[in-house]
Structures are given as structure tokens and as C-alpha cells.
Amino acid sequence: MPGVVAAYIRVSSKTQSLAMQRDAIARSAAARGEEISAWFEEIRSAKSVARPVLDDVRRRARSGELARLYVFRLDRLTRSGVRDMFAVLDELKTSGCQVQSVSEAIDFSGPTADIQIAVMAVCAQVERQAIGERVAAARARVEAQGGRWGRPPRMTPQQVETAKRMRSNGHTVRAISKAIKIPLRTVARLVCQKTGRKWGPRALARHERRTQKKRDERATAEGADLSSRVPCQ
Fold this sequence. Notes:
Elements: E1 4-11, H1 19-31, E2 38-43, H2 52-62, E3 66-71, H3 82-94, E4 98-101, H4 113-144, H5 157-168, H6 173-180, H7 184-191, H8 201-229
Parallel strand pairs: 1-2, 1-3, 3-4
């Protein structure tokens, strides 16, 4: 039974789209009279070859399931250097899986294939390092100007103060969330920082019940203590 024709597409972050790679590969395969039977999609940096979806591709190739693997560019497989690039390509080739790059005219069976692959691997690694340097420089510039790197905070300073005040007055996290119109998890992270836990809906509900129970027990104990101090008439 012949192996299937597959495609591996990858981007580094959720803000990037896989659509362009998918469209280019589908058109290239159609031009060769082939149809992609299995799509492997991954949103992860290529600084390491240890990636779940790529690992699955390699496992399927080793088991003889894949006859051809389309990629948009070779750097979709790895940007971690020449050694890793050759390791992945050699493993796929040895397993009987042919790699087809739709953006690079490489004859993997030709005498200059290794040289072309090495050059592209080095370029991909240099590009990844340059991206890291640009990000680091941008972060340093923002922080030097007194800014905050990363996503903007979900809560304004006024909302933070309101949440803390309501919490100190005995309000539940759910009530605070509704009052200031901020997601429950965000409020939970703020008012429950001392616990060091990540709160899911069920865990948060249990925590609220235990907190309320302790308040009720404390109030009952204080009421009983006051009653015992009242002198008999």
C-alpha cells in the first residue's frame, strides 16, 4: 500500500496565519497531479526540532505511512542549524518519504543538494537570531522609555483598587468580576495571588465556598463569645 501525500505547515505565533502556506502547497501539489491527504499544522517556534506535530510527522514517516511531504520552505522544518536540518531530511529520506519544498527549487537527488540545503539552513538560523535581536532591542527601548513590554494589563489601576477593597469587605471573586466587568480568571489571579495557584472555574468555586464557610464559622464563634460575656439579669 503506497504512502500518503502529506504537508507540514508551521508558524511561530497565534497572530500569524497558516492560510498562505496551505494555499501555496495545495496549488503546487495540484500542478504535480497530487492531492494532499494529510495536513500537519503547528504553531510553534522552529528553534528546536523537538516539536509535537513535527515529531508525529517523523514517526509516521518512519512507519512508512508517508510517501511525500510538502513544506512551504525548508525553514518550516527547523531553524536551529545545519546539523538539525540534515538530521530531519536524512531521516525522512531514509524512511522513503520525499520532501518537496514549494518555494525552493532544490533537486534533493542532485549533486549540489547538500550544499543548497546547508546554505538555506544557515540563512534560516541567522534569520532566527536576527529576529531575536530585534525583539530584544525593541523591548529594551520600550522599558528604557518607562513603558511596559508585553500585552497591556486587563485591569486599570482604579479597577484593581476596587477589586481589592471589595475583597477586603468580604465579596466573592465572582461578585467582584460582575461588579467591575472583568473576566473571572483575571480577578482571581489578582485577589488570590498569595495562594500561588492557577484558578479554574471549579477550583475557584470550591475556594469561594471554603472561604465563605470560614467566615460563617468565625461569625458564629464571635457571636457565641459575645453571648457568653453578657451578664445574667
